[in-house]
Design a protein that fits this description.
- The chain has 4 helices and 9 strands; from the N terminus they run ββαββββααβαββ.
- With 169 residues, the protein is an alpha+beta fold.
- The chain has a single domain, classed as Sandwich (Immunoglobulin-like).
- Strand 4 and strand 5 form a beta hairpin.
- Helix 2 packs across helix 3.
Length: 169
Amino acid sequence: MKTRPEPLPSVSGPVTESQGVSFQAEALTNEDYLYEMFDANLIMAGILPVRLKIENTSGEAVNLKRVKFEVVSGGQSLKIIDAGGAFKRLISFYGISTYSKEGYRESKGDLSSHALSLHAPIAPGEARQGLIFFRISDDQIRQGGLTLLVKKLKVGRSNAESSVELKLN
């Protein structure tokens, strides 16, 4: 796994906003780009990386711990996996069974460095971007029509929840 040579490029695509929080997302499906970036073909390994930018323009912090991210493809929901799960899937796909502990730790850390942090709240005026990962089959990626759903979004201490829908391709 290559170390990140440069920061991820900015997310392109339309912006969707709810409760003072804007979302911008795109599915990374260019296999050449993914191989260049990660030294691995994530799509063939059954991993769909989605580049996501979240910007908090509200006056209160946004806690992402309870927010649910889901990609829908052809009426089927794709399961989100963390960066560690994506790395294990890559190891399995490529049949890597012998590695040094340090090499394993470094490669896993390299992939994780691209992941969007969902643990710390997003402060007012803060923007954050990174990758979230989903399990996907060959059929689902070829179907297209991918949509990212962001559910259970709550801003501040409000009990009001909202959802956002973003077309990925």
